[in-house]
Structure formats: structure tokens, C-alpha cells
Amino acid sequence: MMRCPCCGARDFRRSERCPAEAAPGFRECGHCGILVDPHALASGEIETFLRTRLVAGTFVSRRRDPIIVESYALRTLALSRRLALSPLGAAQRHALCHPYQPLPANAALSPLAMIDPVPVTLVILCRPVDLKCLTPQLPELERRFDDIVLMLDATMTPQTPPRGDRVRLVARPLAGNFAAQRNAGQVAAKCDWVLQLDADESLGAGTHADLGRVAALADSAGAVSVGLPRRNLVDCVLADLYPDVQYRLNHRTVQFEGTVHERPAPPRGWRDSFIAPNLAIDHHLTAAHVEARSARYEQLSPGKGRMFERDALLTPYRP
Fold first, then answer.
1. What is the pLDDT of residue 310?
2. C-alpha to C-alpha distance for 276 and 257, rounded to whole angstroms
3. Domains and their CATH numbers in the chain
């Protein structure tokens, strides 16, 4: 199956939206919600469409387009090209906040770099053993984040904690509950927006610059949770589990749920969130760790070990 030209997922499906908003032959991406003509995707026509139509200026969705979007899906498609969406008119603004409306998108697109970023707190879940590797990274992270919280899986802070004007260390036992640990990080954050990472994760190139801008874009539409594609690098090889979207950029009021494979729980569910393909998390793993982690998660929460993910992680990326 071909990958989505917007978010990179291989999750095209028949849906009732396709014949209603586009044509019966179209397929909907189950991740980002764009409607795609599979034949145009295979022929390369969609790449031409993106290059010529998805540019700064006014975008008007046309019935014969190889990609059909309403405002909500267009926001994600625009971000894939580092463009910001501003819906034109009250009906389009309503459609952006209440997906999916059968209303073709009509919006102004502008460079994302023109948006003033909002401050973001970085929360990193870590163990005492991780501090040795994290400490050298902190000066660079301090230049990029307004506030940094290290959520340490421990009962007390070390005698020589990492230093930094913007770095705080909070000791709290994980006790096998990842959602509770992330929620403690949400509470500890000083900024309205919070990016949550694990110690074995880092941000992809260009992501730092866009984080605060995407958070500001979310604020403008009342969204409170943003999904970042995660690139799983197993023994330095990109795994086929992609985009592996992680909703890690959240308003500090959002809480997580789930003992393992935790996810944020915004008030209206996915309608309060969107995917930002221009942002990326890099996840650094070894094959041995993948095997051990799946078994551990299965022990913590039977049936939640996600063995299918283990297999995808151990398979190299396929375009």
C-alpha cells in the first residue's frame, strides 16, 4: 500500500466521506483525514498538485482535485509544507474546529515562519542512569526551550543534580505508570504548552524552530494536542513503524491516560488535536531493547504489549 503524501501513513481506507465529498474511488487517510485519488498518487499527479497548489496565497479546494480537503485536513497538509492555515469566513473557521464538515477548504496559506512562537516547556522522562547522557545536551536545550523539567524515576534527587538556569529536576517513582509520570510533568511545567520526550528521544532537524509556532497555531483554533511523527531508529536504521504519531505537544491542562502506551485525553478527543508532519521525534533504539520492551509492557498491562509494533520496529522502512 502506498504512503500518504501528507503524513506518511499507510492507512488508506474506504469511508462514507469519499463518495460524499470527493468520488467513490477516492480513499481516506485514517491518520490525517485527507481524501486521495489512488491513481493520481501512483502516477505522480499528486506531487505536481502539492508543488503548484500548496503554496502561499489563497487555497480553494476544487472538486476535480486529486486531493480533497476541508479546513481541518488542510491544516495538516499545509504544515507538511511548513505553511500555516487561516480559514476564510465563519463557516470555514467552524469547519476547522468541528471536523469533518462537508465543506471544501477555502483558506489563506502563509509561511509558518511568519507566526510568532509561544513558549514551550520541555519535559523529559528519565532514570538516574540517563542523566550522564542528558547532562551534556542541556546547554543546547536551554537555548531552545523556555523551561525544562527532568522527571526522574527515583525517590530523591541525586547529590549532584544537573545544573542550568532553566532546568529543574523532579524526582518521582514511575511505578510502572507512564501516564501518571507524564501528568506530573504537565503539572510541573511553567509554560502553557508542553513537549514530552523520553530520554532515548530527540527532536528531528528543524523541529525546534517550528514547535512554538505550531503551538500558537493550535491556540488560534482552540486545539490542545498536537501529534508528532516519530522516526524509530533501530540500530540506526529507520524502522517501518512510521509515522508512529505521538501526541506529545499538549496544552498543560491536558492529562494523559493509559499505564503503558499512554495518550493524552483532550475533552473532545481527536477533534481537539491535529498532526503536524513538519515536526518530528527521533527515537533511538536497539533491536535487543525492542524485544525486551515489548515483553515488559505485556507484563505491565497484559494485551497491551503491541507485538505487531515489535515486528514493524524490527522491519526496515519501506516507502
1. 86
2. 21
3. 12-113 (no CATH), 120-285 (3.90.550.10)
